[in-house]
Amino acid sequence: MDPSDADLIASVLKGDTASFEPLVQKYSPRLFATARRYARRESEVEDIVQEVWLKAYQKLSSFRGEAPFEHWLMRLAVRTCYDFLRGHQRNRETMFSELSEPEEDWLERFGRQPDTASENAEAARQLIERILEQLSPPARMVITLLEIEDRTVKEISELTGWSVPLVKVRAFRARAEMRKILARIAKEKYL
Amino acid sequence: MNLFELHKKLISAARANPPSERVPLAFEKRIMALMPRLAVDGWAQWAGALWRAAVPCVAIMLLLSAWSYFSAYPANSSGDLSQEIDNTILAAAVQDQPSADSTR
Predict the structure, then answer these.
(1) Which residues of B touch A120 (CB under 8 A)?
(2) What would the DSSP string read from start to end of A85-133?
(3) Per the CB < 8 Å rule, is B3 touching A183?
(4) Domain ranges in chain A?
(5) SS3 for A6?
(6) Nearest to A121 by CA among A133, A97, A105
(7) What's the fold here for domain A1-88?
(8) Per-residue model confidence as pLDDT tens digits over A121-161
(9) How far apart, in whole angstroms, are the C-alpha atoms of residue A137 and residue A46?
(10) Which residue of B has its CA nearest to A13?
């Protein structure tokens, strides 16, 4: 029988560093999926996940075992991703005239008849990624967690360390920010 | 264009395409290779910091020594270092003593 997470963590804390490896193997897929929501380049994704594991190792003694290890790790991951977003605020003001041809086609199809534009299309995926990249770090974080991952305000509060009212305020502002970007697309495309 | 519908559609698109959980080959080995570096104890880190601090301290000491060695003596100096020190230390005592004229 495989040792439990608690057993592995106890071994690591006693000095057996090798017991950390099964934890890395078990939870890395989840961490990679999380990091890929915020970073596009694979090298950036790997850097984020590596940082999460190094922080986890350094702070392992602060894990009290009251909640599952995965929850504790995901908190670290979300906060590391947020730090990454804040540190990589590139020029977010890209013009929507730079849209690719499939993205433009998808938008035009949506403009003519919304039902015909499929959400499963690759163009739609690229377009939402482009829009998310233009949001401010808190807006991107809250839209991703609240609307895309469908988490509750309380869960987001626990993951990010923000208070519940702050999450609500940031969600409100994030939706307004997103509406503004969508309005800019519509204006650039149809005016 | 219905922006509310567009918002909903794009969020659905993001939900329909969850990111991949693919992990690069031997990623866990890479992480484990970084662990011994983190396991260095606090005393070693403290000693390392002291060694790093020693270099600028020595450099500053050499600069100050050179400056004091090459700087010229002040104009009113006698040139005798022991006499200068005596004068400086005893200056306060000499001032505190009442002069012979005032006691009369």
Answers:
(1) 13, 16-17
(2) HHHT-------GGG--HHHHHHHHHHHH-GGGS-TTSHHHHHHHHHHHH
(3) yes
(4) 1-88, 94-191
(5) helix
(6) A105
(7) Rna Polymerase Sigma Factor; Chain: A (1.10.1740)
(8) 788 888 898 899 999 999 999 999 999 999 999 999 999 99
(9) 19
(10) B39
Q: Is A16 exposed, middle or buried (CB count within 10 Å of its CB: 0-12, 13-18, 19+)?
A: exposed
d(CA B91, CA A167): 70
CB contact under 8 A, A32 and B9: no
Whole-number CA gyration radius for chain A: 20
Q: How far apart are CA A177 and CA B30, in angstroms?
A: 39
Task: Tell me the C-alpha to C-alpha distance, in Å, between residue B79 and each of A33, B84, B85, B90.
Answer: 77, 8, 11, 18
Residues of B within 8 A of A49 (CB-CB) are 27
Q: What is the mean pLDDT of each run of 10 residues along chain A (191 residues)?
A: 85 87 94 94 94 92 87 95 88 63 83 74 85 93 95 95 95 94 78 49
> Which positions in chain A touch B3 (Cβ < 8 Å)?
179, 182-183, 186
Domain spanning A94-191: which CATH class is it, in words? mainly alpha
